[in-house]
Specification:
The structure is a homodimer of 367-residue chains.
Chain A (H helix, E strand, L loop, with lengths): L3 H6 L5 E5 L2 H9 L3 E5 L6 H14 L5 E5 L11 H5 L4 H13 L19 H12 L5 E4 L6 H9 L3 E6 L2 H10 L3 E5 L5 E2 L5 H12 L5 E4 L5 H9 L4 E4 L16 H9 L5 E4 L7 E4 L2 H7 L11 H16 L22 H22 L2
Parallel strand pairs in A: 1-2, 1-9, 2-3, 3-4, 4-5, 5-6, 6-8, 8-9
Antiparallel strand pairs in A: 7-11, 10-11
C-alpha cells in the first residue's frame, strides 16, 4: 500500500509501530514500516543514548521514530522524593494490601527500580534532547501536543512531530500548535485513550484537520482488513501498538512468560479503560489487579504523575511474579486476536497482503 | 454497491435501516435499501396491523423488515399492574424528584400512555404474529436470538431472522439457534450495545461465524466511508439507525423540536452508555436526565423490563416538554455528524456515492 506518508517519511508502507522494544522498532523499519521507540521506560538517558545508537546501526539505514510522554501543560513536578510525599497513606496501604491479597511477593533483595520517571516532564525533555542527536524522522507525543519549544526544536532538526488525539477539537489544537501528523486514537486502543471509537473518530478528525494534515488511524488495528478500514475512513496510514507485543523480537525485552500467556488467552472483552496506570484513562488488560481497583473499597486513582509513582513498584513486583491473572499490561481490544508469537517480518507481510486482499474484495462489491 | 445480501433480500444496496417510523422505513426501501420498522412502540397490535398495511402499500412493492425486542429467556412477566408493584418506592421517588429538579412538567390532563409494553415478551410475540401476516422479508431481534419457536415460525413463512451480537460468542450462539443474519453491534452504536468497538468486533464475528453467515456492521455508520470501512472489515452490509432520526420523513413521527435541536448540536462526545433506559446497557444522548442517574444519590437501574416501566412516563413527560437539555434519546456516537435534516433519498444517495468514492480512493493506495 502507498500513501503520501510513504514519501514524507521514506517508508514503503504507512504502518507506524509504537513499541518499547528497539528490536521490534528496528525490525518494523527494516520491513518497510516506521518503528517508533517508546522512550518512557528510560530513566537513564545514557541507556536511551546507547539504545538509539543501536537503532542507528540496526535499521539498515531505514528511518525510525521515537515516542515520548509529555503533557503540554507542565504538571506537578519535583524530585521523585518530593512527589512520593504527595501520595496519601491510604493509597499506599491499599496497594500493599492488594498485592498481599493477590499473592504477589516482594521483589528479591537488591532488585527493583524507581518509578518510571519518563512520565515526568523534565525526563521526557531529556528524551527529546537525546533523540535529536540521533536520526529519528518523527517524535510522537502520547499525550497530545508537546510544548511549543519542543515542536520548534524538532522542526529545526528536520524532524516531524506527531500527537495523539481522542477528539476532533484536540486534533485542531495540535495542528494550531504546529504538530505535523495526528494519531486518531480510538476508544478500542491500548494505553491512553478517549471514549470515541475509531469508526466515528477517524473521519471526524480527517475532516476537521483537512487534506493537508495526515491522520493515522489508531485503535483496534491488527490486520490488513483493519488497515483498509482505517484508510477507507480517510486515514493516510495507521498507528499500531498492541500487536507488536506478540512478536519474537519483543521477547528480547520482556521475557516474562506471564505476559505472553496473558495476552494469548485474552479475548477482546478482557480489557478495561481505567485511570489506575497513570492517572489518565488508559486501556489495560483486565486482571485481578485492575478488578481490585474497581472494587468498592478501592481509592480513586491519583492525578498524573502521582498515580504511576504509586503503582510503579507494584507493577515491577506483579510483572516479576509472572502471574498472568494479575499482570499489569496496557493493551487494546485487538488482544483477542493476538494468539501466537511470530516474527515482526511475518506480521508486517500479513498486514500488507491483508490490505491488498481487502481492497480487492471491496472492489468486487462495487456495483 | 453490491453484496450477496442484495440478491438474498431483493435490494439494490446492502443498507439496512432500523427506524421506529414507517415513513422512514418505506422511503429507505423505495430508495433501494431495506427499511426495518421498530415495533417496540406499538402497545396496540391493531395500530401495528394498520402501520404494516400502510407499509405494504407504500414501498412500491419493495421489501421491508420488522424489528422486535425479545429476550430468548422469558424474563419476569405479568400484567403491567403486577410489574409496577415490583418497582421499589425509592426508585419512583427518585424519578419524580429528578423530573421536578429538571423542570419537567406533568403531562397535560388526559395525555400520556402506559409504559412501552413492547419490552414485554408477550407483546413482542404478538408483534411477530401480526408481522407474519404481512410481507416482511426479515425479522430482526434487538436482543439477540429470539426463542427457537419464533425462529422456526419465521422460517416457515420464508422470513429470515437477524439478531444483534456484541461479542463473537453471542454470534455463534445465534447461528446455532438458526439465526440467518448477524448484526455486529459495536460499542459506538446507539441503543443496546456492548463494549467492543466495531473495528475489532466486526472481523471477529465475521471470522467466527464463517463465510456462509452474512454479517451486518453496526455502530458509527453514517457515511459511505464508514460503509466501506465496515465492508473492508468483512461485513456484507450495514445496519444503521441513528442517522435516520435526522431525516424529513422522521419528523412525521416525532415532531418534537427538542429532539432535532438536541441531536443537531451534539458532538460525538455527547453520548453515554447506561442501563437507565431498559435495564441493559444502551447508548443514549448525554443530557441532564442521564447525568442525574449518574450522580451519587441515584439508585441503581432496575433489571429489564422493570426499568423501562419505571421511566416510561418520565420519558413521555420529558419528550413532551421538548427541553433539548433533558431529552431521553437512544443514539450512537455518529450523532456528532447529524447536523441537518434531509430527505431519506438524499441520505441514501450520499451513502451510495460515498462508498464508491472511498473504494476508488483505496484503490489508488494500492502499491
Amino acid at each position: 500500500m502507498r500513501s503520501p506518508l510513504c514519501d514524507a517519511f521514506g517508508i514503503d508502507h504507512p504502518i507506524f509501530a509504537f513499541t518499547p522494544s528497539e528490536h521490534v522498532a528496528a525490525a518494523v523499519s527494516r520491513a518497510g514500516g516506521l518503528g517508533v521507540l517508546g522512550c518512557v521506560r528510560f530513566n537513564d538517558t545514557d541507556e536511551l543514548e546507547r539504545t538509539l545508537g543501536w537503532l542507528d546501526d540496526n535499521t539498515d539505514g531505514k528511518p525510525y521514530g521515537v515516542d515520548v510522554v509529555m503533557p503540554m501543560k507542565v504538571p506537578t513536578e519535583g524530585t521523585s522524593v518530593d512527589l512520593q510525599a504527595m501520595i496519601p497513606p491510604e493509597h499506599l496501604s491499599f496497594v500493599e494490601r492488594t498485592l498481599q491479597q493477590l499473592g504477589v511477593p516482594p521483589l528479591p533483595e537488591g532488585e527493583g527500580r524507581a518509578g518510571v520517571l519518563g512520565w515526568l516532564h523534565s525526563v521526557a525533555r531529556s528524551h527529546v534532547d537525546v533523540a535529536l542527536a540521533h536520526r529519528p524522522v518523527l517524535i510522537a507525543n502520547a499525550l497530545g501536543s508537546p510544548p511549543l519549544d519542543v515542536i520548534e526544536k524538532a522542526h529545526e532538526h528536520g524532524v516531524k512531530v506527531a500527537a495523539l488525539a481522542g477528539a476532533a477539537k484536540h486534533a485542531l489544537s495540535h495542528v494550531a500548535n504546529g504538530v505535523d501528523v495526528i494519531v486518531a486514537q480510538g476508544y478500542e486502543a491500548g494505553g491512553h485513550t478517549g471514549e470515541i471509537a475509531s469508526m466515528v473518530l477517524t473521519p471526524e478528525i480527517v475532516d476537521a484537520v483537512g487534506p493537508d494534515v495526515p491522520v493515522l488511524g489508531a485503535g483496534g488495528i491488527g490486520s490488513g482488513r483493519q488497515i483498509a478500514a482505517s484508510m477507507a475512513l480517510g486515514a493516510q496510514g495507521v498507528w499500531t501498538g498492541s500487536i507488536w507485543l506478540g512478536t519474537e523480537e519483543y521477547q528480547n525485552l520482556q521475557s516474562n512468560e506471564g505476559w505472553t500467556e496473558a495476552f494469548t488467552r485474552a479475548t477482546s472483552s478482557d480489557t478495561v479503560r481505567t485511570r489506575i496506570y497513570t492517572g489518565k484513562p488508559a486501556r489495560l488488560l483486565k486482571t485481578r489487579w485492575t478488578e481490585a481497583w474497581a472494587a468498592d473499597d478501592a481509592p480513586e486513582p491519583l492525578p498524573m504523575p502521582l498515580q504511576n509513582l504509586l503503582v510503579a513498584e507494584a507493577h515491577n513486583r506483579i510483572n516479576a511474579s509472572g502471574d498472568p491473572d494479575v499482570i499489569s499490561m496496557p493493551i487494546g481490544q485487538i488482544v483477542g486476536r493476538m494468539n501466537e508469537v511470530r516474527p515482526v517480518a511475518e506480521v508486517m507481510a500479513d498486514l500488507v497482503s491483508g490490505f491488498a486482499d481487502a481492497v480487492a474484495r471491496l472492489d468486487k462489491l462495487r456495483a
